[in-house]
Structures are given as structure tokens and as C-alpha cells.
Amino acid sequence: MDTVPIAGRFAVRDLIGQGASGIVLEALDLRLRRLVAIKLVHRRPGGPDLARIAAEARMAARLSHPHIVTVHDAGDGPDYAWIAMDLVIGEPLSALLARDRRLAQQEAAALVLQLLAGLGHAHARGIVHRDVKPANILLAMDAAPGPGQVRLGDFGVARMGNGEATEPGTLLGTPAWMAPEQVRGEAVDHRADLWAVGVVLYECLTGRRAFAGGMPGVLTRILGEEPQAPSLAAPGLDPGWDAVLAQALAKSPEARFADAGGMAAAVRGVVAGMAATAAPRGLGALAVRAQSRPAPGGLAGGALAGGGLVGGGLAGLGRRVVAGVSALAGRPGVGLAPVA
């Protein structure tokens, strides 16, 4: 591994993961003497514009919120763009869903409320994420029961919410979570992120994706089909979720929630309704299930860096390594796994 500090500042300590688009490294910030994750995106024919990646990462670095992974610095050079970000303990939501398939309603609500709080902070500053999905929703481990604290990462395709359309033939985002206007390459604003939150919430509650399948079928379903009502897809769910998700997944942005705060209020309304109508015994059972959920991955710790699962339990260390590159592949002996 190259031992020359990246940008003359970040001393590489270990490889977290690698894939077709680049690699993620654990590094020591020589100026501030702290560990960070460094995402390197290599220059390649037909690949992303490195100057754009660095510029958008610097834009994301203006965000400071408990539910957003902090970007410390970014830059680009002849061969790659680099992004320095937090190294945190936990796992991505995608790993939790792959293991448990669905969450208890209160857990799903708590998770989405944290996600909406982070997005509301970004939206208030004119930044639209455009790639909200479980692989980019990190669950930082803490002492509280439940899956962990939400940290939204990987603002790699984020943009100021200025209504710009995408170049024809270009898709920015991940298909299964893209809003109809993203699929069509039209101008997007913060309501595209709220659509994606709706898709995430649907999967958390039902254990299935609202719009499943491969390309190009998933795009056709996003544009022309309505997902099954969650209370029908997963009997036993509170029917209040049907209205919340119908509005979040409205094909027209104008018919969706006006902002993250409005969607959060609707989610809280369902939770309040459940609390008001549930029998005391039922509430107790839900609380016991929430408190008995094991820590993410059943491990003592691990490292997160901006989005996407790249690690399993390291033998002898009990660590789970998560990093901010899409579609990463593992290296032998570390138990790294690919990311959706």
C-alpha cells in the first residue's frame, strides 16, 4: 500500500474496502491527529467527474448535524478525488434489513425520524442528497436499546437544490430509491429525498421493497405502478402507515409532503395513534422486543465511514468495518462484503 500521505496530510493505516469505483482507507489526519476514513474515487474512462465529486463533498462539509456523517475535507488530483470523513462504530441499515428483514413499527419510526431530522438540516441549507438508501444510512452503535443512532452518509451525488435537470441519459442516484422525476432526468428538489425516505420506511415496515426488480423494470414500476398498501403487504401494521406512505410516494412532487418536518409530523401522528389504541400488554411486549434486540451485527464495535457495508466481524478484534463507497468488494481474511 502507498505510504505517501494523501494530500500531504492523511497517513494511510489500513484498507477498509475496494471496488470498481475506488477504495476506502483508514487514515490518520496528521494535522489534527485523529483517525478518519478516506474515500478515493479513481479517474477512469466514462467514470464520474472528479472535480464535481470533490466540489460536492466540500459542499456537504458545510453540514454539521448529529444524524449526518461529517465530511472534513475533500480534493481532487490527476488520478483520483478524495474525501475525508468520520470513522464511526456500527453498520448500515442495509445490513440490518438483510439480517432481520423488517423492524418493529416503533423502531422503524424512530429511525426515520432521525433520518428526516438530518435531511431537514441539509434541505434548510439548500442541499439535496439524491441518493438516500439503506446502504447510506449508517447505524452508529450506542448504549441505548435498538439498532443505533442514524448517521446519513455519502453525499456523493448531492447538489444544491436549485432545480437543475440531469443531462439526458444520465441517472444520478440508485434506481430502486429514485423518485419519478429523477428517473425522467428532470429537475429535482428536496421532495425527491422524501420519496426515498418513503421507500426506506416501506422496506423497514414490510420487509420488502416498494419497487423491486432489476433494470429497467424497476424504473417502469416507479413511473407507472403503485406499491401495495403496507398494511396489506405486512398484516398487523397500523393502517395509519398507508396514508403516510401514499403521500410520501406520490408520483407528483407537489402531492408529497412539503418538507421533512411535515413528514416527521405524520410519522409521529401514527406512533401517537398506536400508543393511544394499543392495549397495555401489547405495548409492554413491544418494549421488551425492542430492548432485547442485539447490538448491530452482534459485535462489540466497528468502523463506519459515510455509507455502504464493507466489513464483517474481524477475527480476534470483534470489529465491523463500514465505509462510504458503493459496490465494494472484500479482501481475503477480513470478511468484507459487497454493498448494494
TrEMBL record:
<feature type="binding site">
    <location>
        <position position="39"/>
    </location>
    <ligand>
        <name>ATP</name>
    </ligand>
</feature>
<dbReference type="GO" id="GO:0004674">
    <property type="term" value="F:protein serine/threonine kinase activity"/>
</dbReference>
<dbReference type="GO" id="GO:0005524">
    <property type="term" value="F:ATP binding"/>
</dbReference>
<keyword id="KW-0418">Kinase</keyword>
<keyword id="KW-0547">Nucleotide-binding</keyword>
<keyword id="KW-0808">Transferase</keyword>
<keyword id="KW-0067">ATP-binding</keyword>
<dbReference type="InterPro" id="IPR011009">
    <property type="entry name" value="Kinase-like_dom_sf"/>
</dbReference>
<feature type="domain" description="Protein kinase">
    <location>
        <begin position="10"/>
        <end position="271"/>
    </location>
</feature>
<dbReference type="InterPro" id="IPR000719">
    <property type="entry name" value="Prot_kinase_dom"/>
</dbReference>
<keyword id="KW-0723">Serine/threonine-protein kinase</keyword>
<dbReference type="Pfam" id="PF00069">
    <property type="entry name" value="Pkinase"/>
</dbReference>
<dbReference type="InterPro" id="IPR017441">
    <property type="entry name" value="Protein_kinase_ATP_BS"/>
</dbReference>
<dbReference type="InterPro" id="IPR008271">
    <property type="entry name" value="Ser/Thr_kinase_AS"/>
</dbReference>
<protein>
    <submittedName>
        <fullName>Serine/threonine protein kinase</fullName>
    </submittedName>
</protein>
